[in-house]
Amino acid sequence: MHTMWKGSISFGLVNIPVKLYAATEDKDIKLRTLHKKCHTPIQYEKKCPNCDEEINNDEIVKGYEYVKGKYVVLTDAELKELKDEHEDKTVEIIDFVKMEEIDPIYFNRSYFIGPGENGGKAYGLLREALNKSGKIGIAQMTIRSKQQLAMVRVYQNCIVMETVHYPDEVRNVKEVPSVPEQVEVGAKELETAIMLIDQLTTTFDPEKYKDDYRLALQDLIEQKVNQNEGKTPTETTPRQNVVDLMSALQASIEKTKKPQGKTKAKPKAQPAKAAGENTGTIQPPPSTTGKKTKTVRKKA
Length: 300
Known about the structure:
It is built from 5 helices and 11 strands. It is of the alpha+beta class.
């Protein structure tokens, strides 16, 4: 299991070196976005719509939009200074409360906490104290550049930290539209509803519940893979043009090559010419009648 964070848990004068591990993972099946025509993954480029040009990471700064269309720019140096000032590698337990006092709407994400080097004994002490008291610890810490409110409790012999939303991060329920204040409910209807709840009441068993959609999607994907329905991105038109051009050039080269193993035929020896004869004389083919032919001479 990958260590996400190293630090310590402190309460009072007790300090426990610990390591943090992700307790949950996202099991969603990630689907890529492909071009329907050639099944190539779509790329999303960073582009400035105002300048109409692509931009690199070193051209990007962070800003906060305080009114519509107006931003204050925060430099990397300013953000780093602020982070260093508030970052603390300590899970500081500031209060102990009962678990049932916290509404689940505040829960965010869970992390396993394991003991760090030479922290086994103090780790066991905190775990036993939490179990015996029936309390959980409310703590503050900084993780991933964000100050977190968290609760520390025991889960199956392991100390767990669960990040908790701050009160101002939970929206006001009164903003939910159309929620009725009071509804008149008939006694018979209420009795029937309670009876149904009683019939469906059981002991919570997390293994009983499955993500049916994800399992069905996974089965569908495996079925398509086994039936060789996988798609390979086809070459784009520009790529085909390059191949055609190369083929044409190669064919042209092959066409201009001399045939291997053949020598050029030597010209036949011409009969000796009489002195003073014009070299432009044309000899007609022999007559089939056996008559003598005159020599035709070109004019000089």
